[in-house]
Write a structure and sequence with these properties.
The complex is a heterodimer of chains A (151) and B (301). Chain A is mainly beta. Chain A is built from three helices and nine strands. Helices cover 12% and strands 36% of the residues of chain A. Chain A is elongated. Chain B has 301 residues and is α/β, with parallel strands linked by helices. Chain B folds into two domains: 132 residues, Aspartate/ornithine carbamoyltransferase (Rossmann fold, 3-Layer(aba) Sandwich), CATH 3.40.50; 157 residues, Aspartate/ornithine carbamoyltransferase (Rossmann fold, 3-Layer(aba) Sandwich), CATH 3.40.50. In chain B, 38% of the residues lie in helices and 15% in strands. Chain B has ten helices and nine strands. The longest helix of chain B has 19 residues. Chain B is globular, with a radius of gyration of 19 Å. The chains are: A mainly beta (151), B alpha/beta (301). At the A-B interface, strand 8 of A face helix 4 and helix 7 of B.
Chain lengths: 151, 301
């Protein structure tokens, strides 16, 4: 017997696949997906490549570069497919950008970004393992910055 | 242009400031910034840095307005940092800023149209201190290039140290980082030094490096960095430079002993009269370097 797809196809919109298991809710949060958005989510689905994965399908919505960047730390190496008329017409891999603007809070409590209305800017110096530098307090953070930002 | 961090200055910037300082000190150039007003905003108390800038500006014929601490200012009335800076920028031609908040000077430089000079932001940077330190090294050692430099004391919380490490790295120094274990320099700086290909050694022992280095830069170890009085007392004396220590070491010719001041007891006062002690001259060099910085930023060169 052929098993049915657990997550239905969408007519047009965006599919983010290969999200690390359990992280789809964080992606929803970061993208500000609200009650008016039509979405389908799958979590802990089996994946031949990654063992387990999450997936989200968002009807009638195309993500901006800023939106994709905002989930890049959570959904590293996830794939984004743009769907037109049930068919994927463009597929890209999420990559951490060279600059992370307005996405993270600086874990240094003495940093000006935590006391003044400043948009945080981090320069990405290395992606694997992650090494990023706050443009204001100039401190460097590694993977722990994700935890400090509840990612 | 602004002076925010040693990391944002180029070697050319630093070299031209050193050359200009030499001309100012020798009197071969006379600069005039009369008609210019510089605001000195010290959100965190400072005596010597504020005086140094004030003297530098006045010796160039400029004028200053000074805010010392924030008790008497509008900041106390709840005005935001950004509003204070923007307002002051309406009156002055440049702003010198000291704050306990890290990144405060960079933020200030983004919201005003006049030059901003960082006079210390928390434990991050103190670039004008480093520029005067490099000038002093150049003066005493005849070159800043390829020096062996020991930096001693509190390497974890001292902003002068963070700036200095990046400044010395520009000139390919070999560093000896001497501190108690829990006051070691932050890991990312070691990573940066590795990336820049700068040789460095870490140790807890001053005496083992005294005869190896061209320059020893001593910083203050503050009592409040220790869990208790006992731990502080235990460490304090092992990071003290005494006359007998200096005299019994086979120092390099031209060995230069520096300290950003204020000093408490890291260098005993009987060292002051030795030919290697240059920390008071270093303070004077600071005034010349700050003249060079101010004059350059105001376009008076």
């Amino acid at each position: 017997m052929i098993k049915e797809l657990k997550v239905d196809a969408i007519k047009c919109g965006t599919v983010i696949d290969h999200i690390p298991p359990g992280k789809v809710f964080k992606v929803i949060d970061l993208l500000g997906i609200g009650e008016n958005d039509q979405v389908m989510i799958g979590t802990n689905l089996s994946s031949p490549k990654h063992g387990r994965k999450d997936v989200i399908k968002i009807e009638n919505r195309y993500l901006s570069v800023e939106e994709i960047n905002s989930v890049s730390l959570v959904a590293r190496s996830a794939t984004i497919s743009i769907i037109e008329d049930f068919k994927p017409c463009k597929k890209t891999k999420i990559e951490i950008p060279d600059v992370l603007k307005g996405i993270l809070v600086c874990p240094n409590r003495h940093c000006v970004t935590n006391s003044e209305p400043v948009v945080t800017v981090f320069d990405v110096e290395a992606k694997d393992p992650l090494s990023i530098r706050c443009r204001y307090c100039e401190r460097v953070f590694g993977e722990e910055i994700g935890k400090a930002n509840s990612l | 242009m602004d002076i925010i961090s040693m990391r944002s200055l180029s070697k050319d910037n630093v070299t031209s400031l050193i050359e200009l300082t030499e001309k100012i000190e020798s009197g071969s150039i006379s600069l005039d910034i009369s008609g210019h007003l510089v605001a000195l905003l010290f959100f965190e108390p400072s005596t010597r840095t504020a005086f140094s800038f004030d003297s530098a500006i006045k010796r160039l014929g400029g004028q200053t307005i000074i805010m010392q601490e924030t008790k008497s200012s509008s900041v106390q009335k709840g005005e935001s940092f950004a509003d204070t800076i923007k307002t002051v920028s309406q009156y002055a031609d440049a702003i010198v800023i000291r704050s306990a908040i890290e990144g405060a000077a960079r933020f200030a430089s983004e919201i005003v149209d006049i030059p901003v000079i960082n006079a210390g932001d928390g434990a991050n940077q103190h670039p004008t201190q480093t520029l005067l330190d490099l000038y002093t090294i150049k003066k005493q050692q005849k070159t800043v290039e390829n020096r062996k430099v020991a930096i001693v004391g509190d390497l974890r919380y001292g902003r002068a140290v963070y700036s200095l490490v990046y400044g010395l790295a520009m000139f390919n120094a070999e560093l000896y980082l001497i501190s108690p274990e829990h006051l070691k320099i932050r890991a990312y700086v070691r990573h940066d030094l590795d990336t820049m290909g700068i040789k460095y050694h870490e140790s807890e022992d001053i005496s083992a490096v005294l005869d190896k280095v061209d320059v020893m830069y001593v910083t203050r170890i503050q009592r409040e960095r220790f869990a208790g009085q006992y731990e502080y007392e235990k460490v304090k004396d092992s990071y003290q430079i005494t006359r007998s220590m200096v005299e019994s070491a086979s120092l390099k010719n031209n060995f230069t002993l520096l300290h950003p001041l204020p000093r408490v007891n890291e260098i005993t006062t009987d060292v002051d009269s030795l030919p290697c002690a240059h920390y008071f001259a270093q303070a004077k060099n600071g005034m010349y370097m700050r003249q060079a910085i101010i004059a350059s930023l105001l376009g008076a060169v």
